[in-house]
């Protein structure tokens, strides 16, 4: 989890690729829901950590759905 070491605050997972998937309503860049994106600025430290934990679960689930690539795959 990325934090700002000066204040131990969670850093936004935004990567400036802002597109909502029409099926999941999750941003394809940061893997947050629109509600999570909108609330980020108002969330306290614990709330931000909860969002980042949800993002990590989504990232893990997405990786598990990807087909395995062999060592000779491009």
Question: Secondary structure elements and their pairing?
Answer:
Layout: E1 3-4, E2 9-10, H1 34-39, H2 45-65
Antiparallel strand pairs: 1-2
What do these coordinates show?
This protein is mainly alpha-helical and 74 residues long. The chain has one domain. It has two helices and two strands; from the N terminus they run E-E-H-H. It has a two-stranded antiparallel sheet. A hairpin with a 4-residue loop joins strand 1 and strand 2. The mean pLDDT is 89.
Topology as a string of helices (H) and strands (E) = EEHH
Structural class: mainly alpha
- Return the average pLDDT rounded to an integer: 89
- Chain oligomer state: single chain
Q: Can I get a quick summary?
A:
The chain is mainly alpha-helical and 74 residues long.
Name the descriptors.
74 residues; 2 strands; 36% helix
């Amino acid at each position: 989890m990325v934090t700002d070491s000066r204040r131990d605050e969670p850093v936004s997972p935004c990567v400036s690729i802002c597109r909502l998937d029409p099926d999941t309503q999750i941003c394809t860049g940061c893997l947050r829901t629109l509600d999570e994106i909108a609330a980020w600025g108002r969330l306290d430290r614990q709330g931000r950590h909860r969002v980042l934990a949800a993002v990590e679960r989504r990232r893990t689930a997405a990786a598990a759905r990807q087909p395995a690539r062999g060592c000779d795959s491009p």
